[in-house]
Amino acid sequence: MSDVVICLFAAAGYDRAAQGLTGAGRRLADALGVRLRAITVGAHSELNLRIAAAADTVISVDQSELIEYQPELCLDALTQLTRDYVPRAVLLSNDVYSQELAPRLAHRLGGSAAGDAVELSAHDGAIRLKRSVYGGKAMATIDIRRSPAVVSLRARAFEPVAAGSYSVATVRQRTLSLPAVPPTQIIERTSETSGETKLEDARIIISGGRGLGGPKPFEDLQEIANLISAQLAASRAPCDAGWCSPLLQVGQSGKKVAPELYLAVGIHGASQHLVGISDSKVIAAINIDPNAPIFKHCRFGIVEDYRKVIPLLKEKLAALQT
Amino acid sequence: MKIIVCLKQIIDPEIPTSEFQIDREKLQVVRGKAALVTNIFCENALETALQLRERSGGNITVLSFGSESAEETLRKALAMKADEAVLVVKDGPPDPDPMTVAQVLARAIRKIGNYDLILVGRESGDWGTGQTGGLLAEELNLPCINFVDQIEKRGTGLLVGRQTGEGWEKFNAHPPLVLTITNSETNVPRIPNMTDILAAARQFITRWSIEDLGFSAEEINAGSGYYELVKLETPDQTLNCEFVSGKTLDEKVEDLARRIVEITRTL
To answer: Residue A310's closest chain B neighbor by CA?
Structure first.
């Protein structure tokens, strides 16, 4: 009773997000003095073993209907599994599937949901969390008193569990009864980023904004990215304009990244963009406007027309790399 | 096909950070000189609906739960060529919790009736909870797909496309259902022309009070106890940007390149 439950999708493996989610779950369970129960959806034996080293129980549901994500089936499965536990909190990551499921799961369990939490704690009987609001212009602290608190976390912002500090749980398989024909069905999946590191896990990112003015400059940025093993990203404007793939979008409604270096080229720095890059170690910018808000968040920068900077930068980086 | 698009009016999220103010006591944002605008993802949702109607026919009702000023949001939607508009007027404190919003919208949608598709924005530019679609689907006992940017009619059903971050997914789905809409290059909201704006100013808007939907003002103002906002603060994290040194452009870019390589070498 009153346990903490974490829900993970096996397809992503034990990535940084899964590690952060497990760490956050473990610490919350310890703070509440309750058990940490993990539910893994889909098949991934290594993930189960890693989670078993941190959680008190692991339930693995790997029946065929759940190997490939289907929202209605997955929601049904998580509802069945979590309902049995009568948990105080159910934690998920902030991937697309978790964001899609969290409010509906909360509704079905009679609890409350909150998303994109960057801090989580137990506070005077409530589950307390922090999340950015108003496109990153403000930070809200929220208490959830209803049970369960279904919280999706900005999981990469949370520390993993310290290694070897807990006894190893056994992994139990469960098979659920699910509807044969779900009301919506994913019939086709395309992945554009196969092979590459996820943007969320990239160590170096070079990103273009509205200031680039068209698709061609993104090719130049890609060349620089190749030189320094960086990944390409963008603010919202170039994605909406079709200058680059929408999968590159970083910001409130795009990806939340946390690289060692985020180099912003022609990005003015709207708060909605900044909220997606606030976990970066170092932000640097190339911008023609010395008053661009991006510079207020930069460790270093250059006030110049990017069109003059980029060709030179390419040359110099190439020379320095050899 | 009957489409209901839910629209939220918010304080312009594009105002500069320097002009953004909060009231730490009341835990509210101070509007100040900021304009009120339609949440951008709601406009993406309306644009998606308008294009679907252009291809496959149908009727679009726009629905907003908000204060009197939300009429402007509905007028703009009518100018963009939505067919009908419904305003559920809210008095009392701003920012009802997500569950209250979903319950009010659900009753309004049932009252409108005969719906096939309900579109909402993926999240709002103010509190950004991203919960309205999911909670609404549960209130109406309907399936839901998030982050949609493509809807096509296929026989009696729909082909629904959505972004997943790593790529795209396509769904077979059957109305009625709830979809949350994200931005893409295909649903950038159209700008209404002057003739349509003038025509929309005279169009009839259905107005319901929350009592018309069977709620009492007390229960709406008390909220659902969904969660409690206990603190609101503006982060102060301005860094001192070091601008690269050098007399010439060449020297400056050299400095920039060295600083970049200094970081990449440590990885």
So the answer is: B253
Average pLDDT over every residue of A254-282:
93
Query: In the numeric block, which tokens belong to residue A57?
Result: 């129980």
- CB-based burial label for B211 (10 Å; 0-12, 13-18, 19+): exposed
φ, ψ of residue B239 in degrees (nearest 5): -95, 160
Residue of A nearest to B131 (CA): A103
**pLDDT given for residue A194 in this prediction:** 57
SS3 content of chain B, % helix, strand, coil (to 5): 30, 30, 40
Residue A87 predicted with pLDDT over 70 = yes
The enclosing H or E element of B112 equals helix B98-112
Separation CA A231–CA A206 (nearest Å): 6
Does the model's pTM come out above 0.95? no
Q: B266 falls in which pLDDT band (50, 70, 90)?
A: confident
Alpha-carbon distance of B120 to B43, in angstroms, equals 9
In this predicted model, which residue has the larger pLDDT, B165 or A199? A199
The yes-or-no verdict on residue A136 having pLDDT over 90 is no
Cα B213 versus chain centre, distance: 23
Cα separation, B177 vs B140, whole angstroms: 9
Average pLDDT of the residues in B199-205: 97
Q: What angle, 0 to 180 degrees and rounded to 10, lies between the N-to-C axes of helices B132-140 and B98-112?
A: 50
CB B105 within 8 A of CB B4: no
pLDDT at A1: 62
Question: CB–CB of A278/B223 below 8 Å?
Answer: no
3-state helix, strand, coil split of chain A in percent (to 5) is: 35, 30, 35
Contact status of B155 with chain A (Cβ, < 8 Å): no
A195 — pLDDT class (breaks 50, 70, 90): low
What is the set of domains in chain A, with CATH numbers? 4-173 (3.40.50.620), 199-321 (3.40.50.1220)
DSSP B206: E
pLDDT at B236 over 80: no
Query: Please, is B156 exposed, middle or buried when counting C-beta atoms within 10 Å of its C-beta (0-12, 13-18, 19+)?
Result: exposed
Q: What are phi and psi of B105, to 5 degrees?
A: -60, -40
Interface of A with B in 66-105 (CB under 8 A): 71-72, 95-96, 99-104
Instruction: Look at residues B97, B155, B115, B146 and name the one whose alpha carbon lies nearest to residue B5.
Output: B115
Per-residue pLDDT of A2-41, as tens digits, reads 899 999 998 888 999 999 999 999 999 999 999 999 999 9
Average pLDDT over residues A133-143: 94
What is the enclosing helix (H) or strand (E) of A99?
Answer: helix A96-109
The Cα–Cα gap between B26 and B28 comes to 5
Compare all CA atoms of chain A with the CA of B124 and give the residue at the minimum distance. A134
Contact B147 A100 (CB under 8 A): yes
Asked if B30 reaches chain A (Cβ–Cβ under 8 Å), the answer is no
In chain B, the largest separation of any two C-alpha atoms, in whole Å, equals 72
